[in-house]
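Here's what a typical entry looks like (phosphatidylserine decarboxylase):
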Amino acid sequence: MAKRLLRLMTELSSRKWLSHLVGQFSHSRLSRYLIPAFIRIYQIPAHEAEKELHEYRSLNEFFSRRLKLGLRAIDTTADAMVSPVDATITAMGTINTGTILNVKGQDYTIEELLAQSPRIENYVNGYAFVLYLSPTDYHRIHAPVTGVQIEREHLKGKVYPVNDFAMTHIRSVLSRNERLITYIKHDFGEVAVVKVGALNVSSIRYADESVTKWQIGDELAYFEFGSTVVLLTESGTFTPRGDLTLGTTVKMGELLGILHPPADKKQKRDACLEQELCTEK
């Protein structure tokens, strides 16, 4: 009975008008008085913030804060893909013919997640990370690879929470919530950075709408309140770091694994390198 009640409350809380009201308050100057309590409740490392606390004009401005320069190191391993966010890994693994398996007990098809995008075929046997940002975390999103935008899409949807209860008991939260998707082409293929909105998130914003290419670690976007990033790699182009497991906490810029050409292209590349005929990676 308790679960049914909680589920009903969660369904009701997904209404856009409620999220809009909470979002409006979080942008107001009045909300800045809640910043100290917010820091205390969620044990936020406020010393990492770019500005002094009194300089933030609203709770939302503090929530989407930048960090002091140099606090996140970007991994320098050759052909690295790094975490775009500070987060906990709630799912990871090979995409099984278009399905991301066992995300909090649920399976997700990339067809639903990417809303029938024609790019789906690039990811049917790729690799996926689901990265959950708690209220404690830094909420700026950075480029996981060096590359160029080849497409972006904004998908309107619900605003369900993405906490453990909602992810476990509400059907297909990641595919039903608002999503901002950036497809980035790198040397060996492409990645999809799927930014998923959540309860009380007034919006997901690009750091600079005019920017269409990034170096690894460059600022890409930010959440106005907590949520999740789903990171997809193209089929056959990624090998994950061997020690990562479910529940691992990662920092922005931390190595997730290595990008490489698909197996057939790698064989051709190795062959032409041996003959010193190769003109591309």
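The helical segments are 2-13, 16-27, 35-42, 59-63, 110-113, 164-169, 173-176, 263-274.

More examples are in the samples folder.
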